[in-house]
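Lab channel / #folding
Pinned by the channel admin:
"Please post every new chain as: sequence first, then the structure tokens as a reply. Keep commentary short and put observations after the output so the thread stays searchable."

First post following the new format, from NK:
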Amino acid sequence: MSTDYFEKNLNCEDLSFKEAMDLFILPLPKLGYIADRIRRVRCGEVVGFVIDRNINYTNVCVSKCKFCAFYARNEDQEYLLSYGEIMKKIEEAVELGATQIMLQGGLNPEIGIEWFEGLLREIKKRFSVDVHSLSPPEIFHLSKREGMSLREVISRLKDSGLDSIPGGGAEILCDDVREKLSKKGRSDDWLKVMKIAHELGMKTTATMMFGHIEKNRHIIEHLFKIRDLQRETGGFTAFIPWSFQPGNTELYDSIKEPVSPVRYLQIVAISRIILHNIRNIQVSWLTQGIEIASLALEFGANDFGGVMLEENVVRATGKPFVPARVEEIVKAIRDAGRIPVRRDTYYNILERY
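Reply from TO:
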């Protein structure tokens, strides 16, 4: 295998599909070595994290994805948080040092753009936080519900206080996979939301949920689509691969367990090697645990994500959730031989430890 993955990445050269697929047959230590070399040059020794809270404002969802354990199965389970309840959660988070709030929920047909505009304005009036919220499927759903263009929806949300958009809802950006998993729209819909957001001056993140029905080729196709849009817009601040948690989902009968830590580390490393134009690769301590997340820092990752003072979607799968303490994350980063820093949504350093 003659490809010099290290040099190609640093020279911002795209891998061919074959070169990318060949990464899957490399021994894990070699793959990690290449990814870590790239990380050292591109990012140095600093590892960031943000103090944040994920607020899931509603569990009513018309999509009913097969991989989701969060949406309400019946009317007795349904909820929609009031503005007051959301403000109380944000107030609690700010008191604990949060600088980022993520609002995400189901595709609830009962709430329209004016509800979100009012909420965003109220948040900005009361708190000094970055509102990193509403995934592309939520924005696409609003566009269809209101009969508005995506550009108008995103512009109105931005004007009301939406600062950046998280990468949720990407799953796998291959329609032959998406059609079997959900009704959340095609891969082009997700990409279109992100492209327009970037054109309007908003930064976003990108994600990938793997470990369900996808094949290796789907993972490469997904990464190539993220890479290609980043070349066009430069709007992605980070990429976050995370592993599907099957508990309490419709897929549980066929997929009993999440993928192994070895597979997770492999995907983190491959993401770093392919995505030469995205600086930050984020670990998923929520799905992997602190120890594996810390190990992923040696496989190309350079960010620890958020403290996450609250999280309900992954927790609905039965995965135990305890917010990570700042001290715990700082220790994990130091144990990996790296320098911990607290950052904001845009990866500006706020505090060094």
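NK: The two ends are 42 Å apart (CA to CA).
TO: also worth noting, The longest helix spans residues 216-233.
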